[in-house]
Design brief:
Length: 282
């Protein structure tokens, strides 16, 4: 355990928006070969933390290192360094084809490459031929090669999410950050995404994933960190996190699938009823 290489190290990351501290002094690391989960109620600061990791935001305090080097707070430089991500709200190029979206992903390693890809200049056309084989491999990997010429906007939602993953993989990252990859998916698609994440890890890419689907998180992750009101409340294995009363308490009032809180809510309600006597307005 101690000689495992650390891929990502976030230290003391704080992000303030005016008077609001969305992320407060968070330390988190991801090691080679790991799938790490980041969970927490809505508004806990998970996406903001991702934005700090990927250079979309400059953290108010703290720093983020990738493979021992401090990452600059500029997203294209973060991508170039080897960190790729998907977004909670899908960000595909809707009017490009499936294949073109993956090809664009291959050229986001540099700012110049991205513009060249978007404007489809001669440099891009040449690079495109060289990249197409790799892009098709990635489409095979996610199971969408048969839709290479479909427009991204015509794909069902679950396939759009998968395409976003392929586009992120196209930058050949060493670490992939997924922000709610199964949002809007049916149970079959969610299970398939679980398998996909394992396959990504098996390719040697470390994964940090934000998810609301607790079954997904607890099945998949080697380690889970819980963010509540911007602070890391608990971190540990799935067993440790599931058994922690503070985590259960943090989620009370925001029920989620597969969570153990149904009985906990009953217990709290029973205790309140006992304590509060007749205050039983519905
Ligand atoms: N750009 C921003 N400006 C101001 N407040 C923000 C911004 N981004 C996020 N927030 C606030 O930060 C908090 C955490 O949000 P977010 O990171 O999206 O939570 P989560 O992803 O855990 O649901 C929320 O209160 C949200 O309103
Ligand atoms: Mg979010």
């Amino acid at each position: 355990m101690t000689n495992t290489a650390t891929v990502l190290q976030a230290s003391g990351v704080t992000m303030r928006f005016g008077g609001l501290t969305a992320v407060r002094d968070v330390d988190l690391h991801v090691d080679q070969g790991e799938i790490v989960g980041l969970i927490g109620p809505n508004g806990a600061g998970k996406t903001t933390f991702f934005n700090c990791l990927t250079g979309l935001y400059t953290p108010t305090e703290g720093q983020v290192s990738y493979q021992g080097k401090v990452l600059p707070a500029q997203s294209h430089l973060v991508t170039q360094a080897g960190v790729a991500r998907t977004f909670q709200n899908i960000r595909l190029f809707a009017n490009m084809t499936v294949l073109e979206n993956v090809l664009v992903g291959r050229h986001t390693r540099t700012k110049e490459g991205l513009w060249s890809a978007l404007l489809r200049g001669p440099g891009f056309k040449k690079a495109e031929r060289g990249s197409e084989e790799r892009a098709m491999e990635l489409l095979d990997f996610i199971g969408l090669s048969h839709k290479r010429d479909h427009l991204a906007r015509n794909l069902p939602y679950g396939e759009q999410r998968k395409l976003e993953i392929a586009r992120a993989l196209a930058s050949e990252p060493g670490l992939l950050l997924l922000d709610e990859p199964t949002a809007g998916m049916n149970p079959q698609e969610t299970r398939a995404t679980e398998e996909l994440v394992v396959a990504i890890r098996d390719k040697g890419i470390a994964v940090l994933v934000i998810e609301h689907d607790m079954r997904f998180i607890f099945n998949l992750c080697d380690r889970v960190a819980v963010l509540v009101q911007g602070e890391k409340l608990v971190e540990g294995t799935s067993e440790v996190v599931q058994g922690d009363e503070r985590v259960i308490a943090a989620y009370l009032g925001t029920p989620f699938e597969g969570a153990p809180e149904d009985t906990a809510i009953e217990e709290v309600q029973a205790a309140e009823a006992q304590a509060g006597g007749e205050g039983n307005d519905q």
